[in-house]
Write a structure and sequence with these properties.
It comes from Nymphaea colorata (pocket water lily). The longest helix has 19 residues. The protein contains one helix and no strands. It is an all-alpha fold and 21 residues long.
């Protein structure tokens, strides 16, 4: 569960940064 949540948050951050740029 922890790993899945971390992966989900990681992808969310990547998409957020990508959108910011």
């Amino acid at each position: 569960e922890i790993a899945l949540l971390s992966q989900f948050e990681h992808e969310n951050i990547v998409q957020y940064l990508g959108t910011d740029k």
